[in-house]
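Dear colleague,

Following up on Tuesday's group meeting, I ran the structure prediction for the two-component complex that the binding team flagged. I've pasted the input sequences exactly as they went in, so you can double-check that nothing got truncated or mislabelled along the way. The structure tokens for the whole assembly follow below. Feel free to forward this to whoever is handling the docking comparison.

Inputs:
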Amino acid sequence: MEIKVKLFATLRENRGKEVSLELKEGATAEDALKKLEIPKKEVAILMINGRDDDPGKELKSGDLLSIFPPVGGG
Amino acid sequence: MHGYRGKILRVNLTDHTWKVEDLDEKKALSYIGGRGLGSKIMAEEVDPNVDAFSPENKVIIATGPLTGTPTPAGGRYMVVTKSPLSGTIASSNSGGYWGSELKFAGYDLIILEGKSPKPVNVFIEDDKVELRDASHVWGKIVSETTEALAKEAPDKAKILCIGPAGEKLSKIAAVMNDINRAAGRSGVGAVLGSKNLKAIVVKGSSKPTIANPDKLKEVTKAARQNIKDNGVTGQGLPTYGTAVLVNIINEGGVFPTNNFQTTYFDKAENISGEHLAENFLIKRESCFACPIACGRYAKADDIEGGGPEYETIWAFGAACGVSDMKEVIKANYWCNELGLDTISAGVTIAAAMELYQRGKIKDNDIDEGLSLKFGDAKSMVEWTKKMGNREGMIGDKMAEGSHRMGEHFGMPEVAMAVKKLELPAYDPRGIQGQGLQYATSNRGGCHVRGYMISPEILGLPQKLDRFAIDGKAEWVKIFQDLTAYIDSAGLCLFTSFAIDAKGYADMISAVIGQEFSDADILEAGDRIWNLERNYNLKAGIDPSQDTLPKRLLEDPIPDGPSKGNKSRLSEMLPIYYNIRGWDESGIPKPETLQKLQVEA
């Protein structure tokens, strides 16, 4: 299945802003992080379709994953 | 007492006299300083029903016991007065270097009273105080005022002033210092304007003493380490500034767009912190003793200056449907130069755009060559200038803020404001605790009276479900109380991402030499909160104003990741009143005030 991943701030370095990922059926957000070589400790906010979600949850084809390093304050 | 300077400078602008008074130590310990002590003095000296622009209103410029000490980000001061915009007590705070300099000159607070017969500047150099004619700088923009006064001042003096917006009594005018730092909110700049006070120039030569320097070194070292190790204060804010929030808030579908009509801006990338850093950023800036350095300095075409911050980018960006970062930078520049609050200015333009969209402002009302269409970036910059100068019919109405402008055009509900103070950049329909915080904030629509974005979006100190209401009232109270303390101590709120109540207690204990526990810190905040609430009630701001714009209560978010949600304020408010020790109608119970030793 294919999912879309949006990356932000420092996570864009060498990876770009947006990537499409081909994952096996049943794959989770954690699997997507592994494939993108993003260590879990660099991830502060992970949204699935704009909602905070369990990184261990099974993804569906067409899901949008948004990944942020620790950032914020305004 | 250490930390404090023990002196208050009281300036009578009517007859151009001044005197130095001793700080009441007992009162200082109860209300800490800054926002708390300033509000206490307002409650004692200024009738809550005073007209904000009358000479009977006072302006209290207040530092805290930690301002000007080596504590991290301890450079803040507060402008406390009655707000001409909201009618509430106002306390608007700013960083930079002016607040610490006032401490170095030997004062904790300045109380400004009366009204000068003609424009005047106050010059302070330690115990030397002078009131000087300001006619040569009256009408000048902030950078020109600052440059002109620097030539008349001792070397390295720090300058606070108002711009033309404050002089012209715009109800959304800011007090500016160090050229581009702003005590922005609640129209405090206009109160200085009403007193004919253009600037306060200050130079000091001695530092506040520290009760326990070894202990302070130890706790400051730990606090600085926490700030460095924390992802937000150690990496996020230094690298990208506050603007990095644009994409986070937008991805969550809570980035108010076109005056809160929608909450997902499809062109957000063009106004993001990442885009700013890549294309427009010249350098980073920091305030006094700050290890974070979140300040930005940006350039667009021939315009350069401090900022833009996240709130500013949103107000002149998504709120107005604008995706051109260059024009956002220009609008920000003009706000700094004219002395306007960027949040209120951008949101007021957005409201004018909606008035036009709904046919309340007609084509023939609009100044030649301009439009009020959502997304017209170039016009937006021109409106900002007109607002700051009260130029033309619409510019003049904009200078009154969104509520009064909306009323004039027969549709006050376009004002996205609470207690007439324009809302900031987070749609509370998808962040329930933040909505409760907006509705109950003592100065109206404000995010920094209790930054619920921290737990509800950023997951600090722990992640809360932003759509849930359970437990939110308790969280809001703690955040509001802790913030009231931070604002009173003279610290920057951003330290709270990395420092907890215990950390704050250790710092103030070491500085002033009186033991504070984390519970004492929160109790002081609670006391300050109730004092402000009491003042507002006496000023006629009744609890029915603890609400949100109708749109946010009744219209579900139409699309995007937070689709279908609306604020559940009415379910949270009774719980909040109860845990605050207020009665069902939102009035503090006598026993609550007694426990906190707040006079009824």
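The interface with chain A takes residues 230-233, 235-237, 239-240, 242, 244-245, 247-248, 251-253, 269, 273-274, 294, 309-311, 424-425, 447, 453-454, 457-460, 463, 465-466, 494, 497, 560-562 of chain B (CB under 8 Å).

Cheers,
M.
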